[in-house]
Amino acid sequence: MKEQSEPIKQKVQEQFGKNSEKYVTSSTHSKGSDLSLLPEWLTLHSEAIVLDIATGGGHVVKAIAPHAAQVFATDLTYQMLQAAKRHLEKSQSNISYVIADAELLPFLDNTFDAVTCRIAPHHFPHPDKFVKEAARVLKPGGKFLLIDNIAPQDKELDDFVNRLEKLRDDSHNRSCSINEWTVWFEEAGFTLLKAEARKKTFDYPEWVRRTTTSEEQIKTVNKHLLSANDKIIDYFSINTSNDSIKSFVIDEWMALSSKK
């Protein structure tokens, strides 16, 4: 796939390839109230065929596989898929594993009853293409469930959190705003059914060490957070003690749409 030659996608493959097991066990990815909400929001029928894009550790697949006939877990990174399979193969037998680019899916039009993607699109260089691909492979009336970190509408806050993510993980592209996602949904022919914006707390020591490669890089991330002004500290609830960062909070959006 030509799209995979893009530098950001190469960085994603490198980052997730060497940290695949960390993403399986990561509390950020393996826990969360959103996982238990997936079956309720999707209301899948027993014959449903579902696609999970950028499956990571396979946590979404684990939550929805008992409610569907067949689930396709896809990821750009081979090692990540291997880790997901090790995590899932003993508990579910209706899962297929496919290497796939979220912006150039290897599936025919109108194939799936539902498409999901969780905590991944901020790595995609062209999220609008991803949304259009999700619409293309969905059957008419099919459901698209997106969960991801989002940027605040305020430019200063947007710049700060996206810079923070990039310093900590060079494969980060951009956390987008709800307004941006809403436009892309409309352009792709989706109707927004329900959505929930919420705050997500990161345990900073675990979060920063998941993707950084040196103590020097960690110091750079620390410096960025510790340099925050009062407005930023308040918005992201940056919790410190004696210049040691304990936790902070970001915005997350869970949105369910249907294909017209």
UniProtKB/TrEMBL annotation:
- Mention any Pfam family matching this sequence: Methyltransf_11
Is Transport set as a keyword in this record? Answer: no
The alphabetical list of record keywords is: Methyltransferase, Transferase
Q: Which domain of life is it from?
A: Bacteria
Ranges in coiled-coil conformation? none
**Origin organism of this chain?**
Metabacillus arenae
Q: Which InterPro entries match?
A: Methyltransf_11, SAM-dependent_MTases_sf
Name this polypeptide is given: Class I SAM-dependent methyltransferase
As one GO molecular function, the record gives: S-adenosylmethionine-dependent methyltransferase activity
Which biological process annotations from GO are given for this protein?
methylation
What sequence ranges are listed for the domain Methyltransferase type? Answer: 51-145
Which Gene3D superfamilies does this entry report, sorted A to Z? Vaccinia Virus protein VP39
List membrane-spanning regions.
none
